[in-house]
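Supplementary Methods. Inverse-folding protocol.

Structures were first reduced to a discrete structure-token string of length 198. This string, shown here, constituted the complete conditioning input.
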């Protein structure tokens, strides 16, 4: 197959002298640079372009993949020399990278915090309302659609909420609320003595 190796898409081959990034002044366009990102693809190229375009000093930011079989991104950046204070294309790129790293760090911290809160909610006992510990994305506790034992008297209401459904709820005494489809379907249990109710 002609498709490049997936691992090579993000590993820089430093043993063979490959640089992660090469920055050159662009002679075709005044106040611009050409950046080659080796061992990268559309993921980083599009993120950088989008972040650069949020900067009011940037006149042009675009990227392309020179060849579909090479793991390389070519990024061109032009800034406005008339803006005060002047921000060079290199500084604009640095600002974009710092902003993306900050966003990624904040996203990771938010995700870890929400997982921690969800784990605390699921280990502290049953949620009688059937609402389930919801994350910001709208997903409740993961389930596969079949009730699994929570403890001796409670059952996980398996399933993932879709649309308006309340999914992944812990049911009190066998009545979970797995959401399937658009409604908040309920799951009637046989009684709190049966830990393996469906």
């Amino acid at each position: 197959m002609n498709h490049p190796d997936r691992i090579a898409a993000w590993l820089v081959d430093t043993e063979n002298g490959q640089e992660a990034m090469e920055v050159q002044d662009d002679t075709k366009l005044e106040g611009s640079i050409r950046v080659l990102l080796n061992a990268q693809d559309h993921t980083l190229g599009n993120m950088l372009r989008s972040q650069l375009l949020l900067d009011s000093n940037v006149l042009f930011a675009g990227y392309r993949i020179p060849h579909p079989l090479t793991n390389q991104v070519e990024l061109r950046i032009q800034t406005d020399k008339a803006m005060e204070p002047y921000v060079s294309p290199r500084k604009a790129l640095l600002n974009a990278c710092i902003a993306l790293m900050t966003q990624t760090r904040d996203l990771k911290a938010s995700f870890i915090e929400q997982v921690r809160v969800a784990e605390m909610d699921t280990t502290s006992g049953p949620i009688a309302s059937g609402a389930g510990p919801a994350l910001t994305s709208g997903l409740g506790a993961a389930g596969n659609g079949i009730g699994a034992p929570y403890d001796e008297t409670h059952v996980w209401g398996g399933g993932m909420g879709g649309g308006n459904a309340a999914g992944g709820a812990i049911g009190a005494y066998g009545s979970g609320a797995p959401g399937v489809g658009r409604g908040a379907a309920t799951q009637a249990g046989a009684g709190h003595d049966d830990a393996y109710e469906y």
